[in-house]
Design brief:
The chain is α+β, with helices and mostly antiparallel strands. Helix content is 27%, strand content 21%. 53% of the residues are buried.
Length: 636
Amino acid sequence: MLTLTALAALRVPPSSRLTSPTKSSVRPRTAQQPRNFAPSPLGFQTAQLQAQQQLTTEVPRLPADAMRLDDGRLIARTDAAEYELLSGIHDFYVSGSGGSGIFLGFSGQANRNEHLLPMGKLGCKRLLSTARTKRWWMGPAFGKSASDIAPETQFVLCELNGGSDAYALFMPLVQDALRCTLRAGKGDTLVAQVQSGDANVRATGMEAALYVAAGDDPYMLIRKAFEVVAERLGTFEVASRKQPPGDVSLFGWCTWDAFYQAVNPAGLRAGLRALHAHGTPPRFMVIDDGWQSVTQDDARPTAAVEETEQKTGRAGADDAQGSGAEIFGDGWSEEKVNDPTIVEGDAANPFVAGVTELYRRHIDGADHGKPAVRLWRGLAKTVLREQLKGFFERNTPFSQRLAAFCANSKFEDAEAGTSLEEHLRALRAEFGSLRVYAWHTLGGYWGGVSTTSAAMAHLGPSKIYPRPTRSLLEVEPQLAWDAAALAGGGMVTQDRLSLLYDGMHGYLASSGVDGVKVDGQSGIGAFAGAGNLGGGPALVRRHVHAMEASVAAHFESNRCINCMCHSTENLYSYRSTSVLRAADDFYPREEASQPVHAPWPCHAIKAHPTPCPLAPHPIVPNPIAPTPQPPPPSPH
């Protein structure tokens, strides 16, 4: 069953302006200024949504100056007392206020694509933070000082020193082409890291780098903070102003763990029959990865293959869509699909065996800056490049690209007279009412869009290589030698993004599909490093906005599940979609994955039955009773 969590959305972004205005020119928005967001295309509200809106309009009674900068100190104030939250903060100024907090900006720095700004000593009793654990996901961590804050931290909730029921939160923001995160600095200090993701996109400042607020109720503090930030940024909207699809209340089944990419119509029918036979009939089904027409661009040179694709909808290099046994032999598993340290069939090669053992012992899970990792990174880009690239091509789908909008020949076969539409009609005839979603990535497929398929030529795709930010490489060093780094990705011309999503969604809607699960979202931003794309946040925002517009045009009731999307580049770009997946995949044989997949989102749901305004953040547990930090997630 899918874990579905309500999220926040957005509206039209402000004009791109990289250089911060002077302090005197900053004009903060007030509560009286209009929001200027487009009304929801959905003209109805559920009782749950109305109740949530009523909840979020209750503003806690706090002093007007609940947060202020005072001679290098950041002071938090509640009804009970004042608290020194930061000492030694000199590079920031107050650029606006709202709710019980203030916006902090900076200016006058060197014109760079990355800034590291010390914020001084953090004073708190204990804290709860959420940081990215992979490019796709984030998770909670607990601590007592700034030294416990990891790179790529996107939210911090503090219990303040010396008092009870006194809390403060830090929200690093995304504005125009810049993204701010938090991390630990030297001497137990807090540091703000601001990056554009593109060496050519530079700035001397950022007007709204962070929002900092204080209060005596952590839940109300969080709710109100997201409303204030949504108002200031103008790029997303909170859950209370959006309508979740009714499908979130249905029991559902996703095909991934049952079939992985070997999903086919017979498997769909068998799975539904099994669930019905055991008294758990699903009314909601996600056809996950394995239905699309994909190809390996570098492995398909002939016109004959192109003609076959146009005729059947199946790409020439479609072997990864076969059964697991065909790919890996007996005993195959998802770990073998996703683990680049497994080199099947080459064990008898002493060189390959030696390199693999070196990777497992010294590289896998090691820190980004370790000498062994730096050495491996150099080898992966030079002498081992072709071998590693070949491994990804043979054993994973991550370098394959979308070759056509229609389904592959497992679902669309003109000669056999079958189609996705007919298969879905037959399933509904047998099992009754059934909501069906289909999977795709934000870029089309894992490797993007084919640069060689005639069916995709109108999108103007070109091959580009990602350049992840330094902080993201610290979190996931493998991004320097994964499939995208070695084979590149097919990126659609930016003014044709709507054609990509309209093509995919139009085909699916005409085939009887009710909605989409959009995966692989937080991997898009790294491609901005290739240059001329306006920076990571701007690149992601364009993709998300085009995708949401297409969802609204082709599917009723806002039917979209956002997945692998926990970067704030994505979270602060959702203006209408309201559901996302809360945790990493379930890997049955990896013990370290269990705390990631189950307890984190369950902990959040148990502690906070009312949807949080930005529920992808698992921040809702009361910090008074933090649980032990789980082991780190698998690096795969």
